[in-house]
Specification:
Largest sheet of chain B: 6 strands, mixed
Order of helices and strands of chain B: EEEEEEEEEEEE
Structural class of chain B: mainly beta
Radius of gyration of chain B: 14 Å
Order of helices and strands of chain A: EEEEEEEEEEE
Strand content of chain B: over 45%
Radius of gyration of chain A: 13 Å
Number of strands of chain B: 12
Oligomer: heterodimer
Helix content of chain A: under 10%
Distance between the termini of chain A: 37 Å
Structural class of chain A: mainly beta
Shape of chain A: globular
Largest sheet of chain A: 7 strands, mixed
Shape of chain B: globular
């Protein structure tokens, strides 16, 4: 079975541009989360979506937005890019809203903002 | 506020030896879960082991075990019989099941290098 897949794997943008990152969860998983990992740090929670509804939001500005589609795939959008948005963006999925249980992560999209 | 502290930026271990990676946490919630993830250079976060705050016994998964000391708020990862493939970043993380969010709070990580 395929794991969590993310695209693109690498991309370079300039300040002020917009970026869209895509994520396909593991088949049967309905919950998708996004994390930002800046170099030298642990991942930071951005969003969680379940059944197309936002279930959680981290401490990120409104330039960050996301959505989940009927097939449970998800997009993360970042507007007006800043140099500080350069990071590895990780997508993770889970079957549902179980209280406990592991998150399954993709390999991430590495964004460089120049 | 929830916080995870990993005080070892880097650790070195000889192949086939055991190594302990430290993790302390801070939370005021009585119910929480603690996780360890491995991140190789590819970037993917690989789940290793989980410990619930109400679990009576320390978690074990193959060569991985979690030394859970609730009173000290520590959840150290022990890797036995290290292998060259264990070289990677290791992250400790915590989740509090409030509001249904599955937000994980991560530490800064420890870079483990296994020497032949």
């Amino acid at each position: 079975d395929a794991g969590v897949t993310q695209s693109p794997t690498h991309l370079i943008k300039t300040r002020g541009q917009h970026v869209t990152l895509r994520c396909s969860p593991i088949s049967g998983h309905k919950s998708v989360s996004w994390y930002q990992q800046v170099l030298g740090q642990g991942p930071q929670f951005i969003f969680q979506y379940y059944e197309k509804e936002e279930r959680g939001r981290g401490n990120f500005p409104d330039r960050f937005s996301a959505r989940q589609f009927p097939n449970y795939s998800s997009e993360l959008n970042v507007n007006a890019l800043l140099l500080g948005d350069s990071a590895l963006y990780l997508c993770a999925s889970r079957p549902g809203l179980e209280v406990w249980g592991e998150l399954f992560f993709g390999e991430g999209s590495r964004l460089t903002v120049l | 506020a929830q916080k995870i502290t990993q005080t070892q930026p880097g650790m070195f271990v000889q192949e086939k030896e055991a190594v302990t990676l430290d993790c302390t946490y801070d939370t005021s919630d009585p119910s929480y879960g603690l996780f360890w993830y491995k991140q190789p250079s590819s970037g993917e976060m690989i789940f290793l082991i989980y410990q619930g705050s109400y679990d009576q016994q320390n978690a074990t998964e193959g060569r991985y075990s979690l030394n859970f000391q609730k009173a000290r708020k520590s959840a150290n990862l022990v890797i036995s019989a290290s292998q060259l493939g264990d070289s990677a970043m290791y992250f400790c993380a915590m989740r509090n099941p409030q509001g249904g969010s599955e937000k994980l709070v991560f530490g800064k990580g420890t870079k483990l290098t296994v020497n032949p």
